[in-house]
Amino acid sequence: MRTRIISGLSALACSCASLPAFAAPWWYVGHDADRVTFVEASSIERAGDTVTYWSREVAGEGGRVTETRRLYMQSDCRKHQSGWMGIERHDPADRKIDTSTRPRATLEDISPDDRVATGELAFVCASETGRAGLVAFPIAIDDIAFARALWASNGEPARALHDQMAANPAVPVIRSTAPATASFGAAQIARTGDAIVPPRDYSVGPMIPDPSAYSPDEVGRIYDIAYQGIRKGELQFEVRGYSISDLVHPGSGQIETFPVGVKQAHVRDILVTITSASADKLAYSVRIEHPEPPEAPCTSADCLVVSTVEAPQ
Asked: The domain containing residue 150 runs over which residues?
């Protein structure tokens, strides 16, 4: 079993701000023709006029997503300035492009004509009660799906569009290339590198994780599983851990191996039934099956062993 940590900006956040003890939804704060911006409300930390927080952007061109960005931001509420201390960029397929960090943010003036940046600043500088008068609202659907719909709409209010999409069961809440949990038990085919189950806390069940139940700096209770082919005569499955703040890009990875030829592989809370497996493809089905808890050591008198070995004469 091998473990690797693949988080890019977590260390930066921990060094720059104390993380709150709970998670809250991402909030939509504004959009224009080439970007949609969200802020993680629970990450906002304020000291005087200075605020630090996480933001997320979906960037596009002509209605097409070009990349996503996760940024660790600093803003000055009095001077109307903002800048980033860390940025992680991904392509439309969620492959990492690069990560950049700075020891301190370079704050720049926010133009009054930049409605998105102005809306972001207003949100992070407002009190919780002050947010009621803003266009911001918490999102309950996938950010890329929402961004595409915003760009395709004919000026429909963002909140109305979001609520319509949230009521549609076909709209993803967490995007994943894995089959939906509703398909558990059915025969599936996965290529090497594909997720075979979507990110969930399977110790609890297949439901969408409740943000209030997880600390934002916790990685691993929520996980998916990817098939990683065959190496040195062993099937490889990667358990990829996620934080509640980012259920798309994993923050850790752990390889679990099984002998080639096994019919079932028990990976964490998932039992994988294997129809066939090769270096580049897996035919399988899955179901949730929690591992048996380890037996507690017996401490009763009946379990005590008394030595009957006599001392030498």
From this structure: 7-166
> What gap in Å lies between CA 276 and CA 67, rounded to an integer?
36
Give the pLDDT score at 216.
81
- Compute the distance between CA of residue 307 and CA of residue 222 in angstroms, rounded to an integer: 48
Tell me, yes or no, whether 2 lies in a domain: no
Question: What are the tokens at 291?
Answer: 């591992």
Q: Residue 154's pLDDT is what?
A: 84
pLDDT of residue 155: 86
Low-confidence ranges of the chain (pLDDT < 70): 1-24, 299-313
pLDDT for the residue 9: 53
Is residue 162 one of the residues assigned to a domain? yes
